[in-house]
Design goal:
Strand order of the largest sheet: 3-2-5-6
Distance between the termini: 23 Å
Order of helices and strands: EEEEEE
Radius of gyration: 15 Å
Strand content: 35-45%
Number of helices: 0
Shape: elongated
Length: 74
């Protein structure tokens, strides 16, 4: 990712009834919505998708997002 990029993550799952999908940034435990505009280092980290339909255990998947550093040229 580069500063200012838009990120769209999809969390696909199935179930009956259809599960609710929640994305959480684990560093601060805040719920986030997508697309997400990355503005700086504070947006890096692990994001968690939780799919829950109140039956059984929720399905959980994590993804790590990092911003790219600009190359240094002389």
């Amino acid at each position: 990712m580069n500063k200012g990029d838009l990120l769209l993550l999809r969390c696909t799952t199935g179930g009956y009834p259809a599960p609710n999908i929640t994305w959480t940034r684990l560093s601060d435990n805040n719920v986030v919505t997508f697309p997400l505009t990355f503005i700086g280092k504070q947006d890096e980290g692990v994001y968690r998708c939780t799919a829950d339909n109140a039956f059984g255990s929720p399905a959980i998947s994590d993804v790590t997002i990092a911003l790219l550093s600009k190359p240094f040229f002389r």
